[in-house]
């Protein structure tokens, strides 16, 4: 006899609670659950967990747990259609039981140490995917089951529908905010920070003076200059790019100066024995050694640039842009549109970061953090 | 203290240079408006008078540093701290939601980090999302949080503090997880030879080892927390706080007010970061860290 997992025991207790408080939707709701459907949910949840406790980590146990928990959750959410806001304790107890099944699944998967590389990568992506999926499932089930007002928190399905139906508007916003303001400001800010870092590297006095100032400025709420930049450069994307330039300048300066000091004495002495000039040493030795630091700044800046451009738009824009859309749709209580815009911003942020990270891997292929592991 | 003296001269020199450039830039940036004003008033000042004029405009494009300092001094020390024109009042409003949010975010972050270190399922499923969330502009949700919470009757300190908490939560989790995992195998093995339980390893080894990481990430977190509070004040229709002051001043193009609010925000930020650093240094010293 194997030990019964605590998730299974708790889920079983929840199933008893659910059975005592049936039906899952309040009496008199428009489209009540069929009794066959309810029985299916109970069977799926309990069978999934029981199979897992008996057979996991073998495939039969794991797979039946996955199917049991998730089909049960989908059945529950599907059953709420037409009965919004009338879910009872029974419904949420069943949902929690299904979730405990998913937790058990994640516990089993986390304990697996597959030998193959593809399997490891699959697990590394699949486990967080399950977590994200359950956030969405809970979100959907609770907002619709408990009938949370739409203006407070729209269900993910409504946000998705809104996102798909307003792609042209979102595309125009992305074009305005990201392809104009963010890219221009990011390139200009990072490039000038880098140029000043090279200058500071040549002039020691400048380096000793700029580094403490740069460190201080990194902690300041630079975003506050947004209204000033809007006044100087007008409502269009130039003012947002200016905010981004200032925000991205200092991280690049500080990191590049640190990176340029990263090459070892032995290597630098070697370059001197070769009679290498300053610029030769810079390009052959010190810039490659500084690359990890420079890419670190580029990564920090990719997030800062998006934040800078979006928040600067709260202070005034033409009638397009992600920050503009967020602030006006909030005012009009179109919260689903705001969430759609936030989803796009999150996606853009991850893509931007991912591209910088890929470039880093290509450039610093020699670095232990890329080569090892 | 040698390194301090080595720094002071260059830093002072560069600050002086920035201020000098600022004064020159102020002349050129304010000149077009001043020329128009003079033409309308039909005066032809000498060059020196003209320069003085550009430094004394009421709503300059770029206020001269002494104008900002005078305004800052006036609205900090000469106005009653409870008045709505006082920067102390606005800073206090922002500071209170910053600190409340920071405390919430830090406590929550530490708890989650402890969970992540001890529950493998949480580590594998939740940690990747925390890392990914560092790449997205979370600050964009600020206006929504404020307005939606206002719609259900929650206004004032709490919504802003929630944004601050949300922003300070992520750096603390990442830093604490790193810190709690920082003891190496040698030390963990030593604890095992002592037959130490999980709780003992946690309190005697992991927690002390994580303290430097905690304070490093708290410095980042408190700066983020302040930014969250300032941005959280924007959509409330400019009620109170540094963000509201900035927005209000930008509506009426009161540039000097904008700059002095910015200075106030920067001072608060610098103070908070220095304070966290000092507390961190003190705690580490009490715990027996050798000065590096």
Summarize this, please?
The complex is a heterodimer of chains A (373) and B (292). Chain A has 373 residues and is mainly alpha-helical.
Annotation keywords:
heterodimer, A: 373 residues, mainly alpha, MetI-like fold, 2 domains, 15 helices, flat, B: 292 residues, 11 helices, 78% helix
Describe the structure.
The complex is a heterodimer of chains A (373) and B (292). Chain A contains 15 helices and no strands. The model of chain A has no long low-confidence stretch (mean pLDDT 86). The longest helix of chain A has 36 residues. With 373 residues, chain A is mostly helical. Chain A has two domains: 143 residues; 208 residues, MetI-like fold. Helices cover 78% and strands 0% of the residues of chain A. With 292 residues, chain B is mainly alpha-helical. Chain B has two domains: 61 residues; 200 residues, Orthogonal Bundle (MetI-like fold). Helix content of chain B is 78%, strand content 0%. Chain B has eleven helices and no strands. The radius of gyration of chain B is 25 Å and the shape is elongated. The mean pLDDT of chain B is 86. Chains A and B meet through helix 4, helix 5, helix 8, helix 9 and helix 12 of A and helix 1, helix 5, helix 6, helix 9 and helix 10 of B.
Give the CATH topology of the largest domain in chain A.
MetI-like fold
**Biggest protein-protein contact in the assembly:** A-B, 65 and 57 residues
Query: What's the mean pLDDT score of chain A?
Result: 86
Helix count from the secondary structure assignment of chain A: 15
Low-confidence stretches of chain A: none
Beta-sheet strand percentage of chain B? under 5%
Oligomer: heterodimer
Helicity range of chain B: over 70%
Domains of chain A (count): 2
The count of helical stretches of chain B stands at 11
Distance between the termini of chain B: 14 Å
Class by alpha and beta content of chain A: mainly alpha
């Amino acid at each position: 006899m194997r030990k019964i997992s605590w998730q299974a025991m708790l889920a079983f207790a929840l199933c008893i609670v659910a059975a005592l408080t049936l039906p899952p939707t309040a009496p008199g709701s428009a489209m009540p659950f069929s009794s066959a459907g309810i029985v299916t949910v109970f069977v799926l949840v309990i069978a999934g967990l029981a199979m897992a406790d008996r057979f996991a980590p073998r495939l039969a146990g794991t797979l039946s747990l996955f199917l049991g928990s998730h089909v049960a959750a989908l059945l529950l959410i599907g059953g709420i259609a037409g009965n919004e806001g009338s879910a009872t304790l029974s419904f949420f107890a069943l949902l929690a039981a299904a979730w405990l099944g998913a937790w058990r699944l994640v516990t089993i998967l986390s304990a697996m140490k597959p030998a193959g590389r593809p399997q490891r990568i699959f697990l590394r992506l699949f486990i967080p995917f399950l977590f994200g999926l359950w956030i969405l499932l809970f979100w959907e089930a609770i907002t619709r089951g408990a009938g949370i007002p739409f203006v407070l928190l729209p269900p993910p399905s409504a946000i998705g529908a809104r996102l798909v139906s307003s792609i042209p508007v979102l595309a125009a916003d992305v074009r305005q905010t990201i392809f104009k303001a963010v890219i221009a400001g990011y390139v200009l800010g990072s490039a000038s920070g880098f140029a000043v870092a090279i200058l500071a590297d040549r002039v020691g006095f400048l380096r000793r003076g700029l580094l403490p100032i740069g460190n201080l400025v990194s902690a300041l709420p630079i975003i506050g200059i947004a209204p000033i930049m809007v006044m100087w450069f007008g409502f269009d994307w130039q003012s947002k790019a200016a905010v981004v330039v200032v925000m991205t300048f200092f991280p690049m300066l500080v990191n590049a100066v640190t990176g340029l000091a990263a090459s070892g004495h032995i290597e630098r002495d070697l370059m001197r024995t070769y009679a290498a000039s300053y610029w030769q040493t810079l390009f052959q030795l010190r810039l490659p050694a500084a690359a990890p630091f420079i890419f670190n700044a580029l990564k920090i800046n990719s997030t800062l640039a998006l934040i800078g451009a979006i928040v600067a738009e709260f202070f005034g824009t033409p009638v397009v842009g992600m920050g503009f859309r967020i602030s006006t749709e909030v005012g009009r209580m179109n919260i689903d549109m705001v969430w759609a815009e936030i989803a796009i911003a999150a996606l853009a942020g991850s893509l931007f970061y991912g591209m910088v990270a890929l470039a880093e891997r290509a450039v610093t292929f020699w670095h232990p953090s890329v080569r090892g592991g | 203290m040698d390194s301090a003296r080595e720094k002071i001269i260059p830093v002072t020199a560069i600050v002086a240079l920035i201020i000098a450039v600022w004064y020159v830039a102020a002349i050129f940036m304010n000149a077009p408006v001043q020329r128009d004003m003079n033409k309308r008033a039909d005066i032809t000042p000498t060059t020196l008078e003209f320069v003085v004029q550009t430094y004394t405009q009421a709503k300059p494009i770029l206020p001269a540093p002494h104008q900002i300092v005078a305004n800052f001094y006036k609205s900090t020390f000469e106005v009653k701290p409870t008045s709505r024109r006082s920067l102390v009042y606005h800073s206090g409003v922002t500071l209170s939601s910053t600190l409340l949010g920071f405390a919430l975010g830090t406590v929550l972050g530490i708890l989650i980090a402890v969970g992540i270190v001890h529950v493998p399922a949480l580590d594998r499923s939740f940690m990747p999302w925390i890392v990914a969330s560092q790449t997205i502009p979370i600050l964009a949700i600020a206006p929504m949080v404020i307005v939606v919470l206002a719609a259900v009757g929650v206004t004032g300190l709490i919504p802003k503090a929630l944004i601050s908490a949300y922003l300070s939560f992520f750096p603390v989790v990442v830093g604490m997880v790193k810190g709690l995992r920082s003891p190496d195998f040698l030390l963990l093995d030593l604890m095992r030879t002592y037959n130490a339980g999980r709780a003992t390893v946690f309190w005697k080894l992991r927690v002390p080892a994580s303290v430097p990481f905690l304070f490093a990430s708290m410095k980042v977190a408190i700066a983020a927390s302040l930014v969250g509070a300032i941005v959280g004040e924007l959509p409330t229709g400019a009620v109170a706080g540094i963000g509201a002051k900035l927005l209000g001043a930008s509506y009426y193009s009161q540039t000097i007010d904008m700059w002095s609010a910015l200075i106030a925000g920067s001072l608060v930020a610098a103070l908070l970061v220095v304070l966290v650093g000092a507390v961190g240094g003190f705690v580490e010293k009490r715990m027996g860290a050798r000065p590096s």
